[in-house]
Amino acid sequence: DTAVSQTPKYLVTQMGNDKSIKCEQNLGHDTMYWYKQDSKKFLKIMFSYNNKELIINETVPNRFSPKSPDKAHLNLHINSLELGDSAVYFCASSQGQGPNQPQHFGDGTRLSIL
Amino acid sequence: GENVEQHPSTLSVQEGDSAVIKCTYSDSASNYFPWYKQELGKGPQLIIDIRSNVGEKKDQRIAVTLNKTAKHFSLHITETQPEDSAVYFCAASRGGYQKVTFGTGTKLQVIP
Fold first, then answer.
1. Mean pLDDT for chain B?
2. pLDDT grade, residue A100 (50/70/90)?
3. Measured between CB atoms, does B86 come within 8 Å of chain A?
4. How far apart are alpha carbons A1 and A17 in whole angstroms?
5. For the stretch B37-48, what's the b/e string if a residue is b when 16 or more beta carbons lie within 10 angstroms of its beta carbon?
6. Of the partner residues B32, B38, B101, the one whose CB lies closest to the CB of residue A100
7. Would you say B88 and B72 are in contact if contact means Cβ atoms under 8 Å apart?
8. Which of residues 40-69 of A touch B (CB under 8 A)?
9. Average pLDDT score over residue span B76-89
10. Which residues in chain A are contacts of B93 at CB distance < 8 A?
């Protein structure tokens, strides 16, 4: 029973392509996140959605567009991929309405740009 | 914005010894401090958290301390085991919908 699942686990593609990563959570949480982890393991938030509404949007290039069709799903579409986009992308969820709720992470999508 | 510093970046201990990881934060309004463990090929998993109204919290071999005046908090692992080997992240947040800012991570190696 995977709580937060991401697909695909690995994504290898050419520079300039467009790709999507999907995320689903079955925890009943109402807040979902996308994080980027670089080669030095630094973990940085990109976006956060609460009940399908964008609440956090860090300084991320507009080539990255999150979409939340419902509160259990948060997908990430990336246009015109660049070498610097190579990283591990993590989806997470939390029960956002309560104070200080812990985040539950998926196992990541490793994106490699050739 | 919040800035979280974490030390050391790598830590090697003998099995059975204790390990301590320290973090400092900059935003005095932060009131929630979770710790995550990331194993190879996996996502970070919460291992313990502490809120600003508590100075210390313990869960079996893991304990966390918080000094709000000095704005630093620490993770203590006692009687370390090889399965404790992983990357550990501290984090800080103002809570609610505020973003969580992560430290730079500590790679812990427990030598059998």
1. 95
2. confident
3. no
4. 33
5. bbeeeebbeebb
6. B32
7. no
8. 40-45, 48, 50, 55-56, 58
9. 98
10. 100
Q: Which residues of A69-82 are buried (b: 16+ CB within 10 A; e: fewer)?
A: eebbbbbbebeebe
Q: Average of pLDDT values for B53-70?
A: 95
Mean pLDDT lowest for which of A37-46, A56-65, A85-94, B69-78? Answer: A56-65
**B76-111 per-residue burial string, b: 16 or more CB within 10 A, e: under 16:** bbeebeeebbbbbbbbbbbbeebbbbbbbbbebebe
